[in-house]
Predict the 3D structure of the following.
Amino acid sequence: MVSTEEWYYSYCFVDEPDGDLLKFLEEVDNGKALDVACGLGRNSFYLASLGYEVIGVDMSEIAIGMMNEKAKRENSKVKGVVCDIQEYNFSEKFDIIVLSYIFHYFFYHIEQIGILNKFIEYTKEGGLLFIKVPYSDERIGSLSLKEGLLRNALKESDNKWLIIHEEVRFSEEEKKWGKYIFLAKKLGLKKKE
């Protein structure tokens, strides 16, 4: 059995971009991307390689420092920012927002709802919202989003959304642990009734 610490490090300190993210994205002429809880920037650098100008945010000064050094060395369009996403306000909207393995850091569902609403707002019309969280049928602590929380947040927003992909996939090694993967596209404002 894999310990929680081994699991955490196996996902947070890898160079390869998230394989589930790879399936959905294509090269762009330009665009702005936000990688939330980016760690060392594995997804940020992949997004930049597709043509996005990327802002990666994380609370770790060490990780952001290392990411900014790599971006400078590679002349990449990646900029790392140290911040608490609950407090930080962005001055722009994004063509894609990646929230990969972040919600389990927030124990209370009210915090998760606040974060979801914030990034729903920061997604441009026509933009994508990619979310990936650990998942367990046993719902240990806050390791996954409460059932229906994401769909309800999109439904209650002022915009129409198209859900492109939604999946729960369990690991072959450990049947009780899996991943919840979600991708949606913001279509535009809802018509007022």
Remarks:
- The mean pLDDT is 81.
- The two ends are 54 Å apart (CA to CA).
